[in-house]
Amino acid sequence: MGFVKEFKEFAVKGSVMDLAIGVIIGGAFGKIIDSIVNDLIMPLISAVIGSVDFSNMYVVLKGTVTQGLALADAKKVPGAVVFAYGNFITVALNFFLLALAVFMLVKAINAMKRKQEAAPAAPAAPTKEEILLTEIRDVLKAK
Q: In sequence order, which residues have a C-beta less than 8 Å from that of residue 73 and are 6 or more positions away?
């Protein structure tokens, strides 16, 4: 029973739960970034470049592949060596946007923390001892 109890204490610690929540939120955030890249940014870039789909962008290094063939089909051609750079562009753009979004989030959180730290703390109410000592001081000054 000691192992189960020890594991339970470990699993419900705040840092482990925070990590789990962070991983779940991170996964969802990654899907949002993927959608931004694939559904919003890539079509704009493709319109400029002229290609509709980055995932099918490749260069044939060896062999003969019919022009305009999908990447999956080009890889199946016997003897063909295909340098598939389109998927890398998509993944690199996803990473860049995710890193940018996380940076902006951390920057906003740090700004809020700085603002909170800069705000002066409300003066604490004097304790009964301080009030009594102040009264004694004032009485002694008056004499």
A: none
